[in-house]
Amino acid sequence: MSDKSAILVLFSGGQDSTVCLAWALSRFARVETVGFDYGQRHKSELAARPRILEKLRADFPDWTGRLGADHLLPLDILKVIGGSALTDDIKIEMGENGLPTSFVPGRNLMFLTAAAALGYRRGIGELVGGMCETDFSGYPDCRDETVQATARALSLGLARPVTVHTPLMWIDKAATWRMAEQLGGKALVDLIVEESVTCYQGDRSHRHDWGYGCGQCPACELRAAGYARYRAP
Hints:
The chain is α/β, with parallel strands linked by helices. Helix content is 45%, strand content 13%. It has helices spanning 15-25, 44-59, 61-64, 77-81, 107-122, 144-158, 173-195, 218-231; strands spanning 6-10, 30-37, 67-74, 126-128, 163-165, 207-208, 211-212. Helix 5 runs parallel beside helix 6 (144-158) and helix 7 (173-195) packs across helix 8.
């Protein structure tokens, strides 16, 4: 049976998933994390994951005892399928199908399925992900309807309840920064700025007030604009 006091966080090493991790740590007694290596070009987000987890354990004593095992699962089938600017050397632009070329078809569906299967083995039926359809890049698998339909299918397929929490679904990036401050104070905001990776290029050489990134890709633009609104009087 699933442990209702435990939750599994889809944790990429980015801003949104770090905020979701803090959200989970403030609400659940046992919090495990799972990341996915799908052949993404921005490998620096995978490198960010252990750094963030280490700092959460060291600098947030109220959460240290709640933060449990971390898991990294290979989903390189997405790289084999290819055709996305996140897995191949393709320019990030709007595609002929009306979606950005950074869209990885089925990515969140696979993430949720793999996380639910892992959760089944770990006795965890609660998942949390950073999907959002307020400030997002037009990905159809980030929509609430998609996420909840997937949760329903997984509950049927696993014959036990699977709940997917999406605390960022209806808020913009400025509100995401505010949520981070509410959950972990300035220390959490500073941790996200310094360590999390949002940039599609995985750029760690250019430092901005909102963190590291190329400053030009859609992910950087969203993060920068949200930070500016968050910091505005």
